[in-house]
Amino acid sequence: MSDVLDYAAVGVGPANLSLAALGADVENLRSVHFEARPGFSWHPGLLLPEATLQVSPLKDLVTLVDPTSRYSFLAFLANEGRLYQFLTAKFPAVLRAEFDQYLQWASRSIPSIEFGAEVRGVRVRAGRSSDGRSSDGHFVLDTGRGEVTARNVVLGTGQTPFVPGFLRPHLGADVFHAEEFLSRPRELPGRAVAVIGGGQSGAEIVRHLMRLDEPPRSITWITRRPGFLPMDDSPFTNEYFFPAYAREFHGLPQADKRELLAEQKYASDGIDLATLQDVYRERYRHECLLGRKDWLRLMPRSEVTGCARLSDGWELEVKGPHAPVVRSDVVVLATGYEYRLPDCMAELAPHLARTSDGLVVGDDYALSLDLRTSGRVFLQNGARHAWGIADPNLSLLAWRSAVILNAILGYRRYNT
Ligand SMILES: Cc1cc2nc3c(=O)[nH]c(=O)nc-3n(C[C@H](O)[C@H](O)[C@H](O)COP(=O)(O)OP(=O)(O)OC[C@H]3O[C@@H](n4cnc5c(N)ncnc54)[C@H](O)[C@@H]3O)c2cc1C
After folding, report:
1. Does 132 score more than 90 pLDDT?
2. Mutate to test the pocket of ligand 1, among 333, 394, 396, 397 (most ligand atoms within 8 A of CB)
3. Is 57 near ligand 1, meaning CB less than 6 Å away?
4. Beta carbons of 299 and 222 less than 8 angstroms apart
5. 406: Cβ below 6 Å to ligand 1?
6. What local confidence, expressed as pLDDT, does residue 330 receive?
7. CB of 228 closer than 6 A to ligand 1?
8. Are 401 and 15 in contact (CB under 8 A)?
9. Using CA atoms, how far apart are residues 153 and 121, in angstroms rounded to an integer?
10. In this predicted structure, what is the pLDDT of residue 185?
């Protein structure tokens, strides 16, 4: 048997875990899924105990393309013997901690996943075939433990926390991205905390801080947005998260895409209504019942433009109608994420086609590579500019994996 795999996947977050789950029962499919971490974990630094999914749990790894799969969220509940309790608990939204357990369970059941394996390099092998002319063009992946050869590569390395340039030199124990909120011990009780960013992560952190047994001395929540705005979760808007809409969006001219991405921002980047209500109620409790006036200070329409270290904390320079400076002991950057091609793609990066908005991503999620290769490089969760606001979301997870898997197999295994 050839030692060339059909594909090698880089990164195992929900995206490539979905691909692994859909491929697990495909006969004769040879694949490997490399994950740098020692085991599966879903944004562990933001796995706050009260945080919930923003989507239906039916938008799991598999259900929307294969409701009979043994890797569904329902199969997990059944396996854990929790179905009756889950139904009876009637959670308005599934706890993220439970979805993380589900994802971990799936990751443990799929043998083609290798944890503790960081892909350090991807290159194209330029060997000669027997006719002496063409190269075999297979992809070679280096994991530090050895090399594997594959016809195709699927990138699923997720997004990188975004930190504005002027804040980067200050990153450390008291200035950090939200992604690290839980991953290091923090001194929060009795200190002034500023949270920058008016999206879901910012709201979840503010809610969490307000509920601590030993809360901060004060919380300042700063956002450029005109207010603390809800996610638009209404029925017609939710059609932006349908495969048919994603396909339609993908076919539009780039200028139209840009306009629509701006227009549709709050369908994906707003704050989920339940979290907003919680924050509002916590503020009521602290202000009205506990007499802590101005303990939570809200600063919408305010942009942080500078940051200076003081002998006893930080001074943030702010442009906006509320205050020109904010002094704080701790600064949490809920400033979002951006897509960056992983370092392991450095050798192939100059050969990838781009527009001014990002990588060119085809209608089966393949990148456009100007090298002679045996297969292609597919991209999960890096194509918001090309596929629309649903790209980083769980909504199209199973569908996108099925599209990629069908392309790799060369036949329609899944109805997409
Ligand atoms: C806190 C949070 C909550 C979210 N909640 C929701 C939600 O409720 N609903 C929703 O629709 N969306 C949600 N999202 C958006 C999205 O679903 C998640 O970000 C999701 O985790 C994206 O999955 P991914 O597999 O693309 O990336 P990630 O989950 O980021 O996984 C990428 C993986 O690749 C690994 N990796 C990176 N480089 C390498 C390498 N060179 N070699 C090997 N491994 C590598 C990383 O270690 C990581 O495990 C949330 C996002 C965040 C940040």
Report:
1. no
2. 394
3. no
4. yes
5. no
6. 97
7. no
8. yes
9. 12
10. 76
Mean pLDDT of the 175-197 span:
93
Domains and CATH numbers, the chain: 4-159+339-409 (3.50.50.60), 163-231+269-336 (3.50.50.60)
Where residue 332 falls (left for φ over 0; alpha for ψ -120 to 50; beta otherwise) is: beta
Q: Is the CB of 344 under 6 A from ligand 1?
A: yes
* Among 183, 142, 141, 143, CA closest to 161: 183
User: Running DSSP on this structure, what letter comes out for residue 262?
Assistant: H
Q: Are strands 121-124 and 139-142 parallel, antiparallel or unpaired?
A: antiparallel
Residue closest to 8 by CA, chosen among 161, 138, 189, 202: 138
Name the residue with tokens 């769980």. 394
Pairing of strands 160-161, 313-319: unpaired
Average pLDDT, the chain: 95
257 closest CA partner among 240, 235, 278, 238 = 240
Does residue 348 have its Cβ closer than 6 Å to ligand 1?
Answer: no
Among the listed ranges 1-5, 100-104, 339-343, which one has the minimum average pLDDT value? 1-5
Q: How far apart are CA 184 and CA 180, in angstroms?
A: 7
Question: Which residue's entry shows tokens 């920058």?
Answer: 196
272-316 residue pLDDT tens: 999 999 999 999 999 999 999 889 999 999 999 999 999 999 999
Closest Cα partner for 106 from 406, 403, 398?
Answer: 398
Token reading at 201? 């992560």
